[in-house]
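Researcher: Sit down with what I've pasted below and flag anything odd:
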Amino acid sequence: MELAPGVVQIIAHRGFSSRAPENTLAAIGLALTAGARAVEWDIHVAACGTAMVFHDTDLERTTDGFGRLDEHTLAQLKKLDAGAWFSPEFRIERIPTLSEAFAAVRGHVDRVYPEIKGYRESADLAQMVMVARDMKMIETTTFISMDYKALEVIRAEDPDVGLGYIVEDEARLTTAFKLAAVDRHSVLDLDFRIALAHPEFLARASDEGIPIVVWTVDDPTQADRVRQLGVSGITTNQVETLLDWTGLGTT
């Protein structure tokens, strides 16, 4: 991921998830309208093998369905309401496929960060890469995950797609660093609290030319603190607030 010196990329977390139901086309569209040039979303795989944009293993929190997403086919999932839980105005929202999410942002963003949450087998990961390739978005996609084995499979599928090693536990810092250091198309994706607690680690990553992205920062004061550490990107629910903080907002 290359940015001009001093520029911090603002990444819309699950779309504009404070304004619309997370991981829906409505949330993605509102992020683009606000001026976001980078979007993050989550991926699980349906029973039929289709990659779906969805965060949880189970359906209950953000839809009117029940049970595990991976036990439902695409046809079954498309019947579910994925928006009314957030607000009645979004009751027509459906769970998007990965292809639909890519189509929504193609030509409008500099980078997308699909987070691999759940899959059945390596073939599912290969299919995710194929979707990015078919959409001609390999060079602007960074697949991120806490599952480093999944990222290894992704890399074997394509030498140019981006990888992002999520670090949610300080104990994983060294492993993630070693993996990112030998892959020129990779970033480290840290819980912002870990970044603040280990400025020496960020300095070391900078020396090695490894970009750092942090999550999830909604407060400009916290954004100031992580920017001083030299991060390249900030994932946020408050897209307009953070874009205004950078001076890149639409208002």
Notes: The chain has a mean pLDDT of 96. The two ends are 26 Å apart (CA to CA). Strands lie at 9-13, 38-45, 51-53, 111-116, 142-145, 162-167, 186-191, 212-215, 233-236.
